[in-house]
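User: Run a structure prediction on this.
Assistant: Running it now.
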Amino acid sequence: MSDSIRVEHLSKQYFLGKASQQTMLRERLASFLKNPFAKETSVTDTLWALRDVSFGIKEGEVVGIIGRNGAGKSTLLKVLSKITYPTSGRVKVRGRVASLLEVGTGFHEELTGRENIFLNGSILGMRQREVEAKLDQIIEFAGVKRFIDTPIKRYSSGMRLRLGFAVAAHLDPDVLIVDEVLAVGDAGFQKKCLSVMEDLQKGGRTVLFVSHNMAAVENLCSRGIWIDRGSVRQDGKTHDVIQSYLSSFAESQQSASDLRTVETRHGNGEIRYTGIAFLGLDGQPQLVTRSGDSIRLRFYYHADNPIPHPSFGFRLLTELGTLVTDTSTSHHSMDIPEIAPGDGYLDLEIDFLNLLPGRYDFSLWITGLSQIVYDGVEHCARLEVELANVYRSGKQLDARSGIVYFPQKWNLQGLHSEQLSRANGRTETEREKWNPARTNI
């Protein structure tokens, strides 16, 4: 079987502070429209987003691209989609390519949803009658029938996402490139997306799928490529690549954590997380954490300047990338007027830890007014939750029982409820002899 995609010694360099000569016209035009009076600053630094990347992908393969934020995944997809040029190396893609790299990519704001469908079809080289044959399918899949003749600029981000994926997947691409589509849509839409990608694979189409959801990558993809700091760190069977990727987190998450030396972070750095600790409510280190425990999470920080109205938050994910919760001080209406320069910490107390046994990863962030991002650290700490007798019945819950436990009380209402109440007061021997089904009422 021939290669659908061939990448040979691909490298991509960005000049920080000045547009590269190899930046495509659309990127420079977009920058100009955002701020037409901005001056080009001198080159102060360079960034190699990709370095000497080589691989081949066969027709009909579904390949998952994984890696941390900033590893170079999105840059790779932009080069494959011909949105940006490589600095060096060669890329060969056979056939028609459809890509969904960001919400609403490829849409013209002033055109209606219907007009944008035909525009995208034309860009892919399709004739009008070919697009018309797919039109109803696209509209139905996206769930935007009521708004299909409304300008795209009126669409919500969710509507744009659904229409964007529907267009990319239904216009008969030979290669479908999808970047983090599952991070935005709801569960029902995610299921539809995965089903469509499976159908494309069965039809011999090639799919490149970027996601932080390791469970989705493992279920969908037969092969994985791990991109780390712009290079291919591992290429092979999906399960093996994911396990290596997850193990790399464990290496850098020693009992959670001194975060002062973490390099893979984003934000302007005026205030940064310096550590996270798992404590008991007595303030002592929590050496073992079990389901149902009381726990205190302590987030250490350092501020260079006074920080007005910051919001501290975190996301908690399972080891395979399933989001458990996304919470912050602002979600709980906690207004912090100002953080003074220097070191400090913030405590979060949890009276009853509802997590079932498993490994859970923390991603932390600090934002401010006007959505300014001060700090963001991905997968920077790991909490291991062990077995516990949360039901007080002797039954030990493990990872097969799910992700969360919630306090519950069962109450039977029916013909045998009175007999059941009496039975609960009997001895175990008496209970074995007692059978409500044989009892006369």
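Residues 99 and 177 are 4 Å apart (CA to CA).
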